[in-house]
Amino acid sequence: SLCVYLSGSEKKQYHNMDLASRGPTLVITLVFTLAPLVCHALSGTAFADEVIEKINEEDNYSEAQHTLTGLIESGVYTQEIQSRFLNELGDIEFFGKFGNRANLEKAFDYYNQTAAHGDPYGLFKTGLMYEYRLNPREPIYTDDRVRTLSYDRAEPAAFASLNYYLSSLGDEPRAQAAMGYRHLAGIGIRKNCTAANLYYSKVARRVYEDQSQRNHDQFIERVRLDIVQGNKNSLDPSLHFEIDEDIVNVIQSRSSQSNPLSLIQLATLYFYGGKGLKKDYSKAYEHWKRASDLGQAGAKASLGYLYLKGFGVPKDYDAAFKYFQEAAEDKNLKGINGLAYSYMYGVGIPKNETAAYEWFKKGADLGHADSQYNFASMLMLGTVEEGADYNRAFKYFGYAAHQGHSLAMYNMGVMHNYGIGTYKSCEASTKLFKEVAERGSWADVVNMARRKYMKGHIKEAALLYLEAATQGFEVAQINVASILDKHDVFEEDFVDHKAFFYMEEEEAAEEARRSGNSTFSKKLARILFTRSAAQGDVSARLKLGDYFYHGIGTERNLQKSLAYYNSIDNLRGPQAAQALFNLGIMHHFGQGLAKDYPLAKRYYDRALAADDSAYWPTTILLNIVRYNLGETSKLVEIKLELIRVIRIALSIAAGISIYFGIMYLIRRYKLRNS
Predict the structure, then answer these.
(1) What proportion of the chain, given as a percentage, has pLDDT over 90?
(2) What is the distance between the alpha carbons of residues 513 and 138, in angstroms, rounded to a whole number?
(3) For the chain, N or C: smaller number of CB within 10 Å?
(4) What Cα–Cα distance (Å) separates residue 81 from each residue in 36, 57, 584?
(5) Residues ≥6 apart with Cβ < 8 Å to 420
(6) Cβ-count burial of 458 within 10 angstroms (0-12 exposed, 13-18 middle, 19+ buried)?
(7) d(C-alpha 177, C-alpha 440), whole Å
């Protein structure tokens, strides 16, 4: 606190005072004289983390600017700590913290200062802004090989890759994930599974070590903004906010009435920090305790975990064992796992590996992911049985991984990487490492993006999603693409529009620019839809079919449009129905290929079978095709369908007329009586 105080204007005001006015305050004078030395000695990362945490708690833009600027200008901190403060200033401007709107020009200036000194995070953020041409300046590098680059159309990719690479050497997980994804997807470089595996394994190992300490996954709300396909309101931020707010209100209302399930739900939200609620272990304990008193075994197991780790309560191994045992007696799976853990490590009871083995096996066979992981770990190490059983361990790791268990996924990735207990596969290993890498603390950017979006801060949400998308987060790619599809949020931030088109061949880019349909946001949206589609997203494939059909973000290409529609025609649901309907249209009217009425009829039939959301247009076109095929008896069906439609329309019109007529008479009656 003293270091923060002395870094501000108070220090300057004190030194500007007249010596006589200071009075005989030798102690104060010594404090101001020795403070820089003390602060320098104390200025470790823990100090920086504490300052930044305090700033975020205060949630005040002006105060944050004042404090951080004062700390930097004091000149008493190491370059590493100064870079931390500059990066925080950059984040405030980039993410639009404390209700402030994003200012990319200021953000880049802050990040660029730290990048010049080799700060890994600053290098990553400037690389991100170089890649998407969001207000970058000329690079600072002095290396002759770099200065020979002309910084023209090809430069953003080169400087982005260079910054990501340099940042990854500094062990920055975001940059390592970005490099892994670039090698995996072949973005700016050739695809290389071995290189991708190397980068992703480093990030995954970091997540593994972190979660091994915390014993629970990072909570990431992987919500898709385009989840309601075809609904115009699906991208309405207020709708998402109301949904979350309503859910929390209902849960809180029921929990106040001592509803045990609602108490558990609310405690879980407080524990992880979801649905707009901030993480609060004390409140999580409070609600789990109330549910436990009502006899909920799951709440007892959760209380055992809190006492085991000291979350929201002081560590108490005896209390942890007590709650685990009570939950296990009620056959709660989390309690069974907790009891096995207690026996394994001697928590509140003497250590007994044989008992731990039996309890872990019981929980694993009942389908509990943590128990499956722990049982597999014992099999790997051969803790109880003679010798390790790698094949059986891999099987149980697989059971846990199928339920989303990060630590199990990491172990499977290692086993695939070296061919232990299973076949050796770079592709399978990299896929698992990538999934684990996307569960680190840095993945909270996805949660931050959704919160910004819910508040209506569209541009800031897009920037947050864009950062995650660069690291290969598929949900972030589809979300930022969906935002750019609806909003031109980055148009004013592109410094050089021509240079932005480095991502593809220059001729295709020029054609897209001339088309008139394509803003730069649409261009970037198409690129991100492409990356999302490559990772298997169905809605992204449908969007790409539409983009190539209409020539949005690229030149029109009906062959590519057909290919994307065909890639989802074997699915069901509204997205598949729309793709099948579009394929029917293209075959019906000969768009991109020769007319083919039988095939058009087949696609229309399949569209109706996949989903009936577009029943009327599909049915009408289907009957027209039948007529074209010479099925003249079907003409009667067309007439009947049209008559039915007309009758419904007339009924609706009559109802509306009667309603307004009654309202008019009521109004006349009221006016006459008045």
Answers:
(1) 34
(2) 25
(3) C
(4) 14, 20, 62
(5) 390, 394, 414
(6) middle
(7) 11
Distance CA 646, CA 640 (A): 10
Average pLDDT on 233-262 reads 55
Question: Residue range 326-354: average pLDDT?
Answer: 91
Q: Could you tell me the two tokens for 192?
A: 């290389």
pLDDT on residue 255: 59
**What would the two tokens of residue 406 be?**
């990060």
Q: Could you give the CA distance from residue 445 to residue 280 in angstroms, rounded to a whole number?
A: 19
- pLDDT tens by residue, 626-642: 777 776 555 556 666 77
Supply φ then ψ for residue 37, to 5 degrees: -65, -40
Amino acid found at 118: G
The residues, ordered by sequence, that sit 6+ positions from 378 with a Cβ below 8 Å of its Cβ are 353, 356, 357, 360, 384
H/E run at residue 572: none
Number of H helices, E strands in the chain: 36, 0
d(CA 242, CA 608): 33
Lowest model confidence (mean pLDDT) among 96-105, 277-286, 435-444, 636-645 = 636-645
- Quickly tell me which residue has 């990072």 as its tokens: 218
DSSP 586-612: HHHHTSSS---HHHHHHHHHHHHHH--
579-631: pLDDT as tens digits: 888 988 898 888 888 888 888 888 888 888 888 777 778 888 887 887 777 76
How far from the centroid of its chain's Cα atoms is residue 320's Cα?
33
- Give me the pLDDT at residue 594, please: 87
Give the helix/strand (H/E) hosting 548: helix 538-550
Q: For residues 517 and 419, which has the higher predicted lDDT (pLDDT)?
A: 419
CA dihedral 505, 507, 508, 514 (to 10 degrees): 140
Q: Taking the CA of residue 266 as centre, how many other CA atoms within 13 Å lie in the half-sphere pointing to its CB?
A: 26
Return the number of other C-beta atoms located less than 10 Å from residue 428's C-beta.
Answer: 16
Q: Give the Cα separation of 77 and 40 in Å (integer).
A: 5
Q: Report residue 591 as tokens.
A: 């768009």
